[in-house]
Design a protein that fits this description.
By secondary structure, the protein is α/β, with parallel strands linked by helices. It folds into two domains: 2-244, Aldolase class I (TIM Barrel), CATH 3.20.20.70; 253-324, Non-ribosomal Peptide Synthetase Peptidyl Carrier Protein, Chain A (Orthogonal Bundle), CATH 1.10.1200.80. The chain is 45% helix and 13% strand. It contains 14 helices and eleven strands. The protein has helices at 23-31, 52-57, 76-88, 103-106, 118-131, 152-162, 185-193, 207-217, 234-244, 253-271, 273-288, 294-301, 307-324, 333-338; strands at residues 2-3, 6-7, 12-14, 36-37, 42-43, 68-72, 93-98, 137-144, 166-173, 198-201, 221-224. The model is unreliable at 333-344 (pLDDT under 50).
């Protein structure tokens, strides 16, 4: 797929997720089939550029190109400076966040709260595009603020006029948060009028659903978020299904064990041992969600203070699984069909 001047492996994108899409996770998803991965949200507050958290979030050293970094904020000049700062530090695509529904973001009029102020949307988009004229700028939004104020079409027109190169739309309003079902009619209506690529996001957790969303919305690509947590191989499953109409054989326990071990090593190296062990806990929980015996395992694992004990617990759990079956065994049969099928 051609996207913003880059040739991508496919049209399957990793959604930016705060606290999740760090460099280790982005690299893993790209390795396992994603065409593009967008960084977690980086603040536009220059006072925080030197903070360890912000430096880590913007760290893309050695990552498979293109490097897409998402910035968030509500002040046009600060957003412009953030774009320049991140381009200077390796970003090849700047993505603007107008989709995050989190209260702490919306309370400072950033994220999806901006959708209520179209003149400010226009000002931010124009200012950021002009600040980095040689770097493509993309935008992520929701369908609107609430059911009575869906303005994705209006935002599309503002974005295209400002020079935005692609638009990702989560098929919910801000007030819906992650409840209910994503609706793709709005995305289809936007795509019908768009001159730029449109990326559909929301509730995509299986190969079949990815195909249905592409067909229903007419979108150029799909963006997958929470469904990929603990299941980064979902991208290769979707890629294969879209190409062939057939399913890949389910991943073997031994392979998933190896993927998780490599992911943990990368987390320890990226964050340092102490923070790495803490960050690893949520990923281990996602990888093991719904598996037989996983609730007791997760509870015990979260108490373990050291890297060695954490690694040993993971190894013991997966070796025990492998002895029972070559493939994953879920406590609830429905879980195996819906594993990870949460809203993106």
């Amino acid at each position: 797929m051609e996207f913003c001047g880059f040739t991508l492996r496919n049209n399957l994108f990793v959604a930016p997720m705060a606290g999740v899409t760090d460099r280790p996770f982005r690299q893993l998803c790209k390795k396992l089939g994603a065409g593009l991965a967008v960084s977690e949200m980086v603040t536009s507050n220059s006072l925080l550029y030197g903070s360890a958290k912000t430096i880590r979030r913007a760290n893309n050293a050695g990552e498979v190109e293109p490097i897409s970094v998402q910035i968030a904020g509500a002040d046009p000049q600060m957003m412009a400076e953030a774009a320049r700062h991140n381009v200077a530090n390796g970003a090849q695509i700047i993505d603007i966040n107008m989709g995050c529904p989190a209260k702490k973001v919306c309370n400072v009029m950033a994220g999806s709260a901006l959708l209520r102020d179209e003149p400010l949307v226009k000002q931010i988009l124009e200012t950021v595009v002009q600040a980095v004229p040689d770097t493509p700028v993309t935008l992520k939004i929701r369908t609107g603020w609430d059911m009575h104020n869906r303005n994705a079409l209006a935002v599309l027109r503002i974005a295209e006029a400002a020079g935005i190169r692609a638009l990702a739309i989560h098929g919910r309003t801000r007030c819906q948060q992650y409840t209910g079902h994503a609706e793709y009619d709005t995305i289809r209506a936007v795509k019908a009028e768009a001159r730029i690529p449109i990326i559909a996001n929301g509730d995509i957790g299986s190969p079949e659903k990815a195909k249905r969303v592409l067909d229903a919305s007419g979108a150029d690509a799909v963006m997958i978020g929470r469904a990929a947590q603990g299941r980064p191989w979902l991208f290769r499953e979707i890629e294969h299904y879209l190409k062939t109409g057939e399913h890949l054989p389910p991943a073997r326990v031994a392979e998933i064990h190896n993927i998780l071990r490599e992911h943990l090593e990368d987390l320890y190296g990226f964050y340092g041992i102490e923070t790495g062990v803490r960050v690893a806990r949520k990923h281990i929980a996602w990888y093991t969600k719904g598996l037989v015996g996983s609730a007791a395992f997760r509870h015990a694992m979260n108490q373990l203070p050291t890297l060695e004990l954490q690694q040993q617990a993971v190894n013991d759990f997966f070796f025990a699984l492998a002895e029972q079956s070559e493939h994953l065994s879920y406590a609830d049969s429905a879980e195996s069909n819906n594993h990870g099928a949460l809203a993106a």
